[in-house]
Design brief:
The complex is a heterodimer of chains A (about 70) and B (about 200). Chain A is mostly helical and about 70 residues long. Helices cover about 70% and strands about 5% of the residues of chain A. Chain A has helices at about 1-25, 30-40, 45-55, 65-70; one strand spanning about 25-30. Chain B folds into two domains: about 5-90, Rna Polymerase Sigma Factor, Chain: A (Orthogonal Bundle), CATH 1.10.1740; about 100-190, Winged helix-like DNA-binding domain superfamily/Winged helix DNA-binding domain (Arc Repressor Mutant, subunit A, Orthogonal Bundle), CATH 1.10.10. Helices cover about 55% and strands about 0% of the residues of chain B. Classes of the chains: A mainly alpha (about 70), B mainly alpha (about 200).
Chain lengths: ~70, ~200
């Protein structure tokens, strides 16, 4: 009986703890824009974009020397 | 909304190899805004990543054409909007609602005036995406642009080819429509009742 009481108390405590967790994490946004701003701030830009851009933009290779320039060594 | 890359969660990779030039500064200042617009407009992270890359590449190649008549931000947004629209036209993936559905939103929007409550869950982005996806494309774009505090209604109007007054009018309906879609009970059933993740609370 005692054991049963203990387990039900424990269960109640766990539930209260979970409820508390849930209440603590409630967030309210007054407007859609506010919510979108929050979302945008927490949406990181993938670093791969900058890397790819760097590759796409990267230094343009110099044009190959003309055959006659290579031949004359100039 | 924008912030330097150095302050972003990926600060460990400053510029990620980009040369310290005017363009790198431009990227650092506006990439977050452009990526977010493409992400929520297209609804696909990989496509958004590709689109953001393409937008900045186009901007780089057309930088000399920029005459300073608008802000860099507005100019980049214009490139991004055109790019996303072209992609959407060619993909033809999404079911787009027409403006004829305005009345539907007006009538259904009674509960759209209440604040939007959510729990801090990872699914917030998914919920936002679902609501945006169900909106008419014009509303979706208006909400995303107006959410950027750097843009005025006039600038949003210029980007969407309408007057600032028209933006205000449509925005009112767009907000209500979004709230109705966001607060739809169906997606709630997909999430566990008790969770450390984010779950919208109606």
């Amino acid at each position: 009986m005692k054991r049963q009481k203990f387990s039900s108390q424990q269960k109640l405590q766990e539930e209260q703890h979970l409820d508390q967790q849930q209440v603590q994490s409630v967030r309210e946004f007054a407007t859609v824009e506010q919510m979108l701003r929050h979302d945008a701030l927490h949406t990181p830009v993938p670093p791969g974009i900058a890397r790819r851009l760097n590759e796409s933009i990267g230094p343009v290779a110099p044009p190959p020397r003309a055959w006659w320039r290579r031949l004359l060594g100039s | 909304m924008s912030e330097p890359l150095a302050e972003s969660p990926h600060a460990g990779e400053p510029h990620a190899g980009l040369a310290p030039s005017e363009f790198a500064e431009l990227y650092n200042e506006h990439s977050r805004a452009i990526f977010y617009l493409t992400l929520r407009f297209l609804g696909d992270p990989q496509k958004a990543e590709d689109a953001t890359h393409d937008v900045f590449l186009k901007a780089f190649r057309k930088m000399e054409q920029f005459r300073g008549e608008s802000s860099w931000r507005t100019w980049l947004y214009r490139i991004a909007i055109n790019h996303c629209r072209n992609l959407q036209q060619s993909w033809n993936e999404r079911h787009m609602l027409s403006n004829a559905d305005d009345a539907l939103w007006d009538n259904a929007a009674a509960k759209g005036d209440s604040p939007l409550r959510v729990l801090e869950i990872k699914e917030l982005g998914q919920r936002i995406q679902s609501a945006l996806d169900a909106l008419p494309g014009e509303y979706r774009l208006l909400l995303l642009l107006v959410a950027d505090e750097q843009l005025s209604y006039e600038q949003v109007g210029a980007l969407t080819n309408q007057t600032a007054d028209a933006v205000r009018g449509k925005l009112h309906r767009a907000r209500k429509a979004f709230a109705v879609l966001f607060q739809k009970p169906e997606p709630l059933q997909k999430f566990p009742l008790r969770s450390n993740h984010e779950t919208p609370k109606i």
